[in-house]
Amino acid sequence: MITAVDTNVLLDVFLADPTFGMPSRRALRAAIQDGALIASDVVWAETVASFSSEDEAAQMLDRLRVRLVPSNLASASVAGTTWRAYRRAGGRRKRMIADFLVGAHASVHADRLLTRDRDFYGSRFRDLKILDPSRAG
Questions:
Q1: I need a labelling partner for 33 at 20 to 30 A (CA). Which of 3, 19, 85, 95 fits?
Q2: Cα separation of 134 and 76, whole Å?
Q3: What is the CATH number of the domain that holds 47?
């Protein structure tokens, strides 16, 4: 089982978020027990930006056994077609947001996505299984 991880879950853990830190930590542990954790290039970049150095971020990601899986033609195409559908349905943003790239990456490279943005991903990537640590029982 491959679980793609969204930035919000990683930062919950790395920055010890008082509300979501523990649920995200538990969800990450469960995902690790089920298989591999991956991050898209977008998630990796957003995570690195939250640390004082690239090395510090890489060490933290390595501790969680998160590996970078770059986007490819298939995931870029899914992001583009999903973005187009969003715009045709009346979506008002004029530029593609990172979440379309993250969702498309997860739908191509993983079995599921661990994120707190269940509503966004669930409405745009209907075939993608979403795990939301903030709604775990």
A1: 19
A2: 28
A3: 3.40.50.1010
